[in-house]
């Protein structure tokens, strides 16, 4: 089965709102074995919406639509649906009761504007939306199913889970689509491609490979379509095992795993604790770590030593070293890491100092120069990185590099690296 997603709203086209609805729906459809052939965003204009409907109907069996079902003058999706399916709006008593109950529970008065949301296209299948006021609307035409849903993400997800996905399960028993994503860190996309070139050439034709680079990380996604899930999983597992033998030092996880969670699991297993001493990253590494549920078991805190005065007073970096070597230097980050362990009473520390940019670079230390150190039981190692000239990317790449550096240290300490 082929599907298309149409998201409606000027806010999507001017960059005011990120289109998270489309990505969530695409993932849910893929997991249900449905191909998403196209995602289209259109303005709140009748002609553009109708054109999108017509084009989608020609290509897809299932067309999912979000946005424009509200009560205000710019919400025109219901009117356009009436035009497209040659029908008219009528008041639905069940929807009206749901809206009345919704406002009563909130202690609010039902206005005439909100009452308009009980108007639905005559002849459509009305989909209950108990967590909002705009119902979902389903239409069958020429063997195709159109489903219009509210643009509010949690309302859209409710209708997907209560109506669309169950409908697919009951009416579609087609292909299975499986994805496996291999996470790598510490190697660039082109270098990784060269390293696994022979493996790529030997991949079965049924498996599709995609490179998905992001700051500091390259994901390798393997995709396979078929009708026997168990045999497909076995085939993917064989190829993943071959790949991991080629890049053991760069591989760190699968699919939606996060590097900070992987590092945390290693620390927890070894019964060790961690802190950070951050300059150019400004607490970004600590922010990532504390986003991991349960990280308080192994992460104790952070010193954001952005100013040299903090480096001197809290982390005991000497004035002489700062003047002679500079804040972005091996000597400084190593001292930061050692003193952070002492100050916060942890087994390990990550320290980072660099020139994030856009200013502050010199010929000897250009923007993007970052020093990272790891201190631990009987360990003090440091490494210099040269990233680039984009501040935000440099901060992300420094954080990822620091976590990856710690992972490699923990592997060696445990005798597995």
Give a verbal description of the structure:
The protein is an alpha/beta fold and 417 residues long. It is built from 16 helices and 17 strands. Strand 7 and strand 8 (144-149) form a beta hairpin. Helix 2 (20-31) runs parallel beside helix 7 (153-171). The radius of gyration is 27 Å and the shape is elongated.
Protein traits:
26% strand, six-stranded mixed β-sheet, 417 residues, five-stranded mixed β-sheet, alpha/beta
- Radius of gyration, Cα only, in angstroms? 27 Å
Structural class: alpha/beta
- Give the spatial strand order of the biggest sheet: 2-1-3-8-7-6
Say what the CATH topology of the largest domain is: Molybdenum Cofactor Biosythetic Enzyme, Chain A
Q: What name goes with the CATH superfamily of the largest domain?
A: MoaB/Mog-like domain
The total beta strand count reads 17
The level-1 CATH class of the largest domain: Alpha Beta
Major β-sheet profile:
6 strands, mixed
Instruction: Report the mean per-residue pLDDT as an integer.
Output: 95
CATH architecture of the largest domain: 3-Layer(aba) Sandwich
DSSP helix fraction: 40-55%
